[in-house]
């Protein structure tokens, strides 16, 4: 009888312990699953936020490009001072931070190359030349770039179409009529000791 009573108590204790363990494991799994689901929701939320911020920034850059297209469409010739005033009035440093400069690259057929170089030199840039050197059917030198100082001076005259990544973006923009973002490039403005990766929107 005593043995039976002890056995019954032990059995109840073991069953209680087992039920407690099952409940604890189940509760732990539920908590873990809840934490994982919340973490996943947070991750998706943060990713969405970052994606929207990047898209907003790209849209702002594209809007500036459309404004530049409108400037050239509204004028027979856009002079260097007009380009400078346009960029200054954009207040781009405040509205789209992180930009190195805003430039204009002109398409020059090979038969007008000498006249183009002579015209830019006559504007007060006697050392102006298009680089990299070489014979091509057309040239696309950077002729305007603001702010026109410091590192940006290194890009003056650079033929962007000679570099494959830039050329692909330029061709896409020509084909679609919409702004195109280049892949990763080394900006011409960079030095050997101060290299930053960048992209171009054309």
From TrEMBL:
Transmembrane segments: none annotated. It comes from Candidatus Methylumidiphilus alinenensis. The keyword Transmembrane applies. InterPro entries: CHASE_dom, CHASE_sf. Keywords: Membrane, Transmembrane, Transmembrane helix. GO terms for biological process: signal transduction. This is Diguanylate cyclase. PROSITE patterns: CHASE. Residues 139-202 form the CHASE domain.
